[in-house]
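Section 5: illustrative case.
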């Protein structure tokens, strides 16, 4: 079954386990995959700075569960103003719950209370819960102490940023997924001459792909230099 999403929210089709480059986060990837199987962790909290792959893992988990014909749900709490705390009611009846950017509900009494009660319902008889945020549980700014403790019920992982070699691999893999061949020297050139965070690199790749198609040229250093 397709992942349940609020209106206007879509999963990234290119965010799967097969194209996730873990770098130093191999254990995190393994734990998330095991969570989707019987006997895995029920509660997983992922934290780290933007661009470290948290959202990718949540989207990949939803895709994996959907492929099996089950029902996951993904809620980006950064868009909480377009959502409502009542949306958390009944999620324990699904097969996977993924909540992204939990820091965005910090200080919102209604959202914090709704998430606290969701944890309690899930613990009694519910599916796995994957939650992502930008800080360790105690530094999120949550005002409900019991919610902070709930976030630590399962395993907590700090996602480590990718080194340059892993970023190059991720860039080349992303290019292949788009049907574009990116030589190693071009990937290395982009890492030297452009912003080094992955979201910016992927956005640059998208623009390079369109430009190369329009010009009917391959991705080479001269072409990239001209584009930049």
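Designed sequence:
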């Amino acid at each position: 079954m397709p992942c349940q999403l609020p209106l206007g929210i879509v999963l990234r089709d290119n965010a799967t386990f097969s194209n996730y480059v873990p770098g130093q986060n191999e254990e995190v990837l393994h734990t998330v995959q095991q969570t989707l199987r019987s006997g895995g962790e029920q509660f997983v909290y992922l934290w780290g700075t933007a661009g470290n792959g948290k959202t990718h893992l949540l989207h990949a988990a939803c895709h994996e569960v959907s492929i099996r014909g089950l029902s996951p749900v993904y809620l980006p709490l950064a868009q909480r103003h377009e959502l409502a705390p009542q949306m958390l009611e009944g999620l324990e009846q699904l097969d996977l719950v993924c909540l992204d950017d939990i820091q965005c509900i910090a200080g919102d009494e209604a959202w914090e209370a709704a998430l606290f009660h969701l944890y309690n319902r899930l613990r009694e008889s519910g599916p796995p819960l994957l939650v992502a945020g930008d800080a360790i549980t105690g530094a999120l700014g949550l005002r409900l102490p019991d919610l902070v403790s709930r976030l630590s019920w399962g395993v907590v992982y700090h996602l480590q940023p990718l080194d340059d070699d892993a970023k190059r691999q991720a860039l080349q893999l992303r290019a292949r997924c788009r049907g574009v061949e990116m030589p190693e020297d071009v990937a290395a050139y982009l890492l030297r001459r452009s912003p080094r965070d992955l979201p910016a690199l992927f956005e640059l790749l998208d623009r390079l792909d369109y430009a190369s198609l329009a010009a009917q040229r391959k991705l080479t250093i001269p072409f990239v230099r001209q584009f930049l």
